[in-house]
Design a protein that fits this description.
Layout (H helix, E strand, L loop, with lengths): L14 E8 L4 H11 L7 E7 L4 E7 L9 H6 L4 E8 L13 E5 L2 E11 L2 H10 L10 H10 L5 H11 L2 E9 L2 E6 L8 E5 L2 E5 L3 H5 L3 E5 L5 E5 L2 E5 L11 H7 L5 E2 L2 E2 H15 L6 E4 L5 H11 L7 E3 L12 H11 E3 L1 H4 L3 E6 L6 H12 L4 E6 L21 H4 L2 H8 L3 E4 L2 H7 L15 H4 L13 H14 L1
Parallel strand pairs: 16-19, 19-20, 20-21
Antiparallel strand pairs: 1-4, 1-10, 2-3, 2-4, 5-6, 6-7, 7-8, 8-12, 9-10, 9-11, 12-13, 14-15, 17-18
Helix pairs in contact: 3-4, 4-5, 8-9, 8-15, 10-12
The structure holds adenosine monophosphate.
The site of adenosine monophosphate has 20 residues, from helix 12.
């Protein structure tokens, strides 16, 4: 079903991964491999666009990369030496194929394809303006706003139009674009979402994470810098810095949960950071227990760090089935509950009569913790001390990590003691915000100029959030009313 509400945007809930390769034989096959490695960033839909020197080819599908992009016929239909792709996840009703990226448009300058990771926090405001001026939107995704801004810019060259568009948007964006002339990759001035550059022989690759380079045997070249725009064409690679420099604020939740532990994000090994968070957690919040038990897989590196620091043995008290998706990545609340049971099972033989420290990376709604603590007790654990390898998640993310509205965040509604009682744990503790920064090699959070976006923990949003200002909302509905009345 297509939505009739142009502002029913689902971008608030988007999590994505992007990948692009310039000038390699059978680019689509390489893109498919890269997307495989980025599947954890979005599991609802995937898309690939290629350029064969004459034509663009696109295949977009709901579901995983495997099953859609490991098919010979699909890869053969995506001919060309230049290609890009996207994996996405969204939870709202609007999951139609028209929102699956890469998005594509024929502009005055020729074809233009775009894949976006992040969230534009003034997209609705810009969209309202564009619709008033006659733009006709094909999707409800915030990314399409970029295409319309490029199309309607008064600058002459495509790059100038693109920069003009970027200067009008706020929020988080790592982008890969393709035109007949070449590929463009860029990262917002704060570098909120990650983006790396790699090399496969003479081919240039861009990807959300380094694991996508590893999977296709590519070499890591460097991170795309916050605020940097890189073009790759027949005439070579060019780097532009079109924004006034500001202190970068990459997303700290990439380190905590979102990126794969075998990735290096902005120079930091995610695995090492997670282990170090576990060690901080052990120093800040020790517990008298027989075993340290991770909630797999996301709690594993922090649990190793906690066990090594505390001397309490690490054991696998929960076994995870790998044949179900991430619990969180299930659209409906009732399924999400079921998912926890499907995904995890207690190792009863180990747990009976034991006091355990249970480690997970985060508590969002509390669904996982509630079920897992109960599961541990059912399996005979005598004490369950829950330790969380991030500070309490008290604020929604408007920059591309799926978080529910504030009212659904457990830590926004309850004190830590109340949360402990709610999930049924004997004790509950979180790593401190300073502890999190120490794990990343800093003395603590630099309050005057933090090195990361940590808005989900602190509420300190590094950009304006035009669409989310209360004043902006009635106006959007006013426009809707006008449309209904017309
Ligand atoms: P919840 O069950 O709602 O408290 O969510 C916490 C669990 O979901 C933890 O086990 C995390 O590993 C995982 N998680 C946290 N944030 C996200 C996210 N943005 N997307 C998917 N899973 C998440």
């Amino acid at each position: 079903m297509l939505t009739t509400n142009p502002f029913d945007d689902d971008h608030l809930r988007e999590e994505c991964g992007i990948f692009g390769v310039y000038d390699v034989e059978s680019a689509a096959a390489i893109v498919a491999l890269g997307l495989h490695a980025l599947q954890h960033r979005g599991q609802e839909a995937a898309g690939v666009t290629t350029w064969d020197g004459h034509l663009f080819h696109t295949h977009r599908a709901m579901g995983h990369v495997a099953g859609n992009f490991d098919r010979d016929d699909v890869i053969r239909s995506l001919s060309g030496r230049v290609g890009m792709g996207h994996v996405r996840y969204s939870t709202t009703g609007e999951t139609a194929i028209r929102n699956v990226q890469p998005l594509f448009a024929e502009l005055a300058s020729g074809g233009f394809a775009v894949a976006h990771n992040g969230n534009i926090s003034n997209a609705m405001t810009l969209k309202r303006e564009l619709i008033r001026r006659g733009s006709i939107f094909q999707s409800t995704s915030d990314t399409e706003t970029i295409i319309h801004l490029v199309a309607t810019s008064s600058y002459r060259t495509l790059i100038d139009r693109f920069i003009d568009a970027l200067r009008r948007i706020e929020g988080a964006y790592s982008l890969i674009c393709m035109t007949p002339e070449g590929m463009i990759a860029c990262r917002d001035p704060l570098g909120i979402r990650p983006l790396v550059m790699g090399k496969l022989g003479d081919a240039t690759i861009f990807a959300s994470e380094t694991v996508a380079l590893d999977v296709c045997g590519a070499e890591f070249v460097r991170h795309v810098e916050p605020g940097e725009l890189i073009t790759v064409s027949e005439s070579g690679i060019r780097s532009i810095h079109p924004f006034a420099p500001v202190r970068a604020r990459p997303c700290v939740f990439e380190q905590v949960y979102f990126s794969r532990p075998d990735s290096v994000v902005d120079g930091q090994s995610v695995y090492s950071v997670r282990k170090a968070i576990g060690a901080e957690l052990a120093r800040e919040n020790p517990a008298d227990a027989d075993y340290v038990i991770p909630v797999p897989d996301s709690g594993v590196p922090a649990a190793i760090g906690y066990a090594q620091e505390s001397g309490v043995p690490f054991e696998l008290g929960i076994i995870r089935s790998h044949y179900v998706g991430r619990t969180f990545i299930q659209p409906a609340d009732n399924i999400r509950h079921l998912g926890v049971k499907l995904k995890h099972n207690a190792n009863r033989a180990l747990l009976a009569g034991k006091r355990i420290v249970l480690i997970d990376d985060s508590i969002v709604r509390g669904t996982t913790s509630l079920k897992i603590v109960q599961m541990m007790r059912d399996a005979g654990a005598t004490e369950v001390h829950m330790r969380i390898a991030s500070p309490p998640t008290r604020h929604s993310c408007f920059y591309g990590v799926d978080t529910p509205e504030r009212a659904k965040l457990l830590a926004a509604r309850m004190t830590v003691e109340e949360m402990a009682a709610y999930i049924g744990a004997d004790s509950l503790a979180f790593v401190s915000v300073d502890g999190l920064y120490r794990a990343m090699g800093e003395p603590g959070r630099d309050a005057a100029s933090p090195s990361h976006c940590d808005a989900c923990f602190t509420g300190d949003y590094p950009t304006t959030l035009t669409d989310h200002d209360e004043a902006a909302v009635p106006d959007q509905f006013a426009l809707l009313d006008e449309r209904v009345m017309a």
